[in-house]
Amino acid sequence: MHDASSSAGVPADELHIVFVLLISVTAAMGGLLFGYDWVVIGGAKDYLFAHFHVTGVDQQGWLTSCALVGALLGSICSAGLSDRFGRKLMLIVSAAVFLVSSIFTGMAGSIAAFTLWRVAGGLAIGLASNISPMYIAEISPARWRGRLVALNQLTIVIGVLAAQITDWLITRHVPAHATTASLAGSWYDLWAWRWMFIAVAGPSALFFFCSLFVPESPRWLIKEGRLQQAHQVLSAIGGAAFARSAGQSIQESIGSESLVKVQWKDLLHRGVPALLVVGVVLAVLQQWSGINVIFNYATDIYRRAGYTLNQQMFNIVITGVINLVFTFVALFTVDRIGRRTLMLIGCCGIGLSHLAVGWAFYAHLHGPVVLAFTLATIAFYAMSLAPVTWVLISEIFPNRVRGASVAISVSALWIACFALTYSFQPLTAALGIAGTFWLYSGICLAGWVFVFFSVKETKGQSLEQLEQSLHAARR
Question: Relative to the CA of 346, which of 40, 51, 208, 283 has its CA 20 to 30 Å away?
Answer without folding.
Answer: 40
